[in-house]
């Protein structure tokens, strides 16, 4: 049986509320959001292994690019020619990569209990949870914010009718945001952060059918 994430999160909170990571399960009352992106070997959660993790903090209208996480992991055995076509990351790009366990510890410390923002963010969370749960006994408990949903809701509210193009490049173009190092974890995380700030605090995008 598949346990819904909300129920699993409550179970995790009960189990870990007195443990070393108890702070992750506390309600967040600050004003920061973390934009997160992972580059993986596959688009299927069950097969995916993590190659790199990028994250940047957002505070109000500011994307804090100096306050960021840029991690490369050791190349997994599953790093194949086919997967390289997707993410353009070769084994030689990961020679200085760190162990997965070290990467996950850095990630948990960086995110804390802040909300996590991303483009198809549930995929990234599910891949991270796949490796996090066997090591720590819990998955990421953070609130998730999906950029394409934020964009869609604003577009639909401003412009009724018609389908909304939710492709990454289209959203960036509509918001007049430059795409930074596409298909790198940190570049995508920063680009998503900039789009989110524009949506929340800037002029809403125009939309033509």
Topology, element by element:
Elements: H1 5-16, E1 32-40, E2 50-59, E3 62-72, H2 81-87, H3 100-111, E4 116-118, H4 121-136, E5 144-146, H5 147-158, H6 168-174, H7 185-201
Parallel strand pairs: 1-4, 4-5
Antiparallel strand pairs: 1-2, 2-3
Using the coordinates shown, work out and report the CATH topology.
Nucleotidyltransferase, domain 5
Strand order of the largest sheet: 3-2-1-4-5
Strand content: 15-25%
Whole-number mean pLDDT? 84
What's the number of extended β-strand segments?
5
Please give the count of helices: 7
Q: How far apart are the termini? A: 42 Å
Structural class: alpha/beta
Compute the CA-based radius of gyration. 17 Å
Description:
The protein is an alpha/beta fold. It is built from seven helices and five strands. The chain has a single domain (5-201), classed as Nucleotidyltransferase, domain 5. Helix content is 40%, strand content 17%. A five-stranded mixed β-sheet has the order 3-2-1-4-5, with helices on both faces. The protein is globular. The mean pLDDT is 84. This is 3'-5' exonuclease. Residues 32-205 form the Exonuclease domain. Keywords: Exonuclease, Hydrolase, Nuclease.
